[in-house]
Amino acid sequence: MTSWRFAAAAAFALVAAGGLIFAFTNSAFSTDPRAAGANKEAMELLVREYLLEHPEILIEMMQRLDTRQAEEQEAMREKALAELGKDTLLDPRIAYVTGPQGAKTTLIEFFDYRCTYCKRSVEGVKKLMKERKDVRFAFIEFPILTESSDFAARAALAARRQNGKYLPFHFALMEADGDLPPERVYDIAESIGLDVARLKSDMKDASIGAAIDEVHAIAEKLQLSGTPTFVIGDRVISGGMSYDMLKEKLDGASG
User: Fold this and answer.
1) pLDDT range class, residue 82, cuts 50, 70, 90
2) N or C: which end of the chain has fewer CB within 10 A?
3) Residue 1: CB partners within 8 Å, gap ≥ 6?
């Protein structure tokens, strides 16, 4: 736990304890204000000494608070997803969708080509795509980290216009370590057989920028602040996930 979070936990604990002490002393000694004040001070001292002797309580408090906040945020995102409608995320203007139209389960990923956690998740996604022919997969460029993230996303969107080239290009970008300056992106494009001259021309199309703007608007409605974020069934799940984690979520999902 960082020092500021620990300090915040300590302050929260003391404030909470103070409220309980105030309520107790006011109810127990309302007829004698002096007794109430003395007992309040004694109890505050006991609480302080106990917290100093057992600082692990503060860590447990923060862990429970983090869990509660994560659950509340997930619930808000899922409510926003229901209001938005999943079909919005499968719009071909923003998402590359592959898999059976009548799939009972869909895995949607918001990602950034410079995101370390996205790169760690890619092998699990690839493996599931080979294994699960009953699942529909959707890939949504959500560049938020660097200028090269945005450039790579625009190149990937333009690559969709060259039949059969998007997925090889997508995975090649995902598996590339380090920065992605324009010339490297073009080199990767050429290595998987893309027409680079056409790619450069298509990247200038206003619809490419409009698609990225639309994704950011959707992400704001879903309260997404990081990548990767997966939408599996009716759940919105943030953070990198292994093959086993993704498989578990898919097995438990519907829709």
Assistant:
1) confident
2) C
3) 9, 58, 59, 62
Q: State the pLDDT at residue 71.
A: 66
What gap in Å lies between CA 169 and CA 185, rounded to an integer?
9
Q: Is 224 exposed, middle or buried (0-12, 13-18, 19+ CB in 10 A)?
A: buried
Which tokens belong to 237?
């799940």
Token duo for residue 238: 């943030």
- What the block records as the tokens of 20 is 């309980």
- Distance between CA atoms of 3 and 67, rounded to whole angstroms? 19
Residues 81 and 243: their CA atoms lie apart, in Å, by: 24
**Bridge-based pairing state of the strands 105-111 and 135-141:** parallel
35/44 Cα distance (integer angstroms)? 14
What is the model's pTM?
Answer: 0.74
Name the nearest CA neighbour of 222 among 95, 138, 65, 110. 110
Q: How far apart are the first and last CA of the chain?
A: 38
Q: What angle do CA 225, 244, 152 make, to 5 degrees?
A: 40
